[in-house]
Write a structure and sequence with these properties.
Length: 308
């Protein structure tokens, strides 16, 4: 089944070229079916690119999904035209009286800034609090995972000595979670960030379950009870060239950043990236949609409530 999106959205054209079935809102409204309502709070600077990346993963499912794009009203985007935001996005004020099956909060390049100093932090706090009673399952990606763990559970983030960038091998540590069904014991996933959350801090909280880890103190997937909150510390949605684009951009700015690890063929930046995370990225989003959104959300969205 398709994702329901505005047919004029640039992502719709890209997905159509890739053979991914999308359905205009006008046609979806004539079908006697309740699609899953998924809101995406997009706080990445490259919003159009992130839209396409996430919709590509959400569309790889037999479920029909209605996408609602959100952006922070308290932040002026420097990289996305205001015409694009006005045409395709809403703000929290527009939808705060609605309920959703799922919510995705993207990452943002603000890991080196204290949470409270981020310009839209107060608005994000309001949205995360609202999600507890108006969204059945929320997926937090990269910086949003750190922000969510901090807001909901008081878990801090810590600075890294240098940027973590590359494709890393992860170990599955939970064999019972539905989110991990079909996962290999080890798998690859992208990371791109300047801060991290300590595994020991998460382990102290009985409400949280670590599903995957990497390295000595690296977290990748953390789940709250019943999957109402999912925290993904990496960027499974990244395209083949996203890390390369970031690396070239940072070098052009004169930044001292490491070459993305385990990424370029033969570790040579002149050669193309070796994509080896796409299968598990699709599996992660499919499992989330199936086991934590579709099978758990009440048919009547008004029945969603906080479990506490």
């Amino acid at each position: 089944m398709p994702i329901n999106i505005n047919s004029n959205l640039p992502a719709a054209k890209v997905l159509a070229q890739e053979g991914i079935f999308t359905m205009p809102f006008e046609r979806a409204e004539r079908q006697d079916i309740r699609p899953l309502r998924i809101a995406i709070l997009n706080i990445m600077p490259t919003k159009e690119q992130t839209e396409t990346q996430l919709m590509r993963l959400l569309a790889n499912s037999p479920l029909q999904i209605e996408i609602v794009l959100l952006h922070p009203a308290t932040h002026v985007s420097k990289n996305t035209p205001i015409e694009h935001l006005n045409a395709f996005y809403q703000t929290f004020e527009d939808i705060k009286h609605q309920k959703f099956d799922g919510l995705i909060i993207t990452g943002a390049p603000v890991e080196q800034i204290p949470f409270e100093h981020v310009t839209y932090w107060k608005e994000l706090e309001e949205i995360m609090e609202w999600s507890r009673t108006n969204v059945y399952s929320t997926m937090h990606i990269c910086w949003a995972a750190q922000a969510g763990l901090y807001y909901h559970y008081g878990i801090p983030k810590y600075p890294l000595e240098q940027k973590l960038s590359g494709i890393y091998l992860h170990k599955r540590t939970d064999h019972n979670s539905p989110l991990m069904r079909g996962f290999d014991d080890v798998f690859w996933a992208p990371h791109s960030r300047h801060s991290y959350v300590k595994m020991s801090d998460v382990q102290k909280n009985p409400e949280l379950n670590i599903l995957c880890e990497f390295g000595e103190d690296g977290l990748y997937l953390v789940s709250a009870k019943r999957g109402r909150q999912i925290f993904v510390t990496g960027h499974p949605e990244y395209d083949a060239n996203t890390l390369k684009t970031e690396y070239v951009r940072d070098l052009a700015k004169g930044l001292d950043v490491p070459m993305p690890a385990h990424y370029f063929t033969d570790n040579d930046p002149k050669k193309p990236p070796l994509v080896r995370w796409r299968g598990h990225a699709n599996l992660l989003f499919n499992n989330w949609l199936n086991y934590y959104v579709y099978q758990e959300t009440p048919y009547d969205l008004q029945a969603i409530q906080n479990e506490e």
